[in-house]
């Protein structure tokens, strides 16, 4: 071991020098005087040189001791600063958040969520990664993720944060081309647009349910499969096909008559939303605060009444 491996020995040496004697240093550190004397001897052994000249009347630094004192103070200063930063990280709302979300939720709901949190806590900054393949984002260093759909990473903690309601929607022009649908089976001949990514919903079949009726599974053969729900919405608006879309994404289009609900009494399975984070990490206060904020925000946002 070197003389700089044990910070307690460095603190003992500096305290002795600053207090003027071993006995005064022992009182300051609340240690027995023999214990502090052993610390000094051990430090000098590791240095391979005497650091202090001691006699019955006074104590003074050797030349090596003077140089070592300056270095010890620098090392202890850096250690104290690092400890202070660490404590601030654990006790104050400051620092940087590394977040991720799926594409469409991230561009809309999560961006608003993060903006609200940063406005509330101006000493926090954040980066937001957006991907529909978020499996290893936590392992790659992200703090928190907002993830709709099925959770496939068993290493994370996933806190429920509401449900996304899903509706069948089409453009009025497409709906006018086909006889009015009265049951799910009537939609077999309609052109469909599907979503890639099995963690959301299947691009090969749609599960529909209605009050008082058994769930129906409707096989589909999409004319277009997209990775993003925003792209699906645009394709549906253009009249290309019918699809399942989140209620929060099409409220304005439904109100404006640009889209219509198909089989409005039937709905696809609600999509759960989770706030995910690593369970084995000690969370800084900014991370735990964001998790609580996100769960509350999403639960309220997604529970808004239908348009």
UniProtKB/TrEMBL annotation:
It comes from the Bacteria. InterPro entries: LysR-type_TF_proteobact-type (IPR058163), LysR_HTH_N (IPR000847), LysR_subst-bd (IPR005119), WH-like_DNA-bd_sf (IPR036388), WH_DNA-bd_sf (IPR036390). CDD domains: PBP2_CrgA_like. Residues 5-62 form the HTH lysR-type domain. Keywords: DNA-binding, Transcription, Transcription regulation. One of its GO terms (molecular function) is sequence-specific DNA binding. One of its GO terms (biological process) is DNA-templated transcription. Pfam families: HTH_1, LysR_substrate. Belongs to the LysR transcriptional regulatory family. This is LysR family transcriptional regulator. It comes from Luteolibacter yonseiensis.
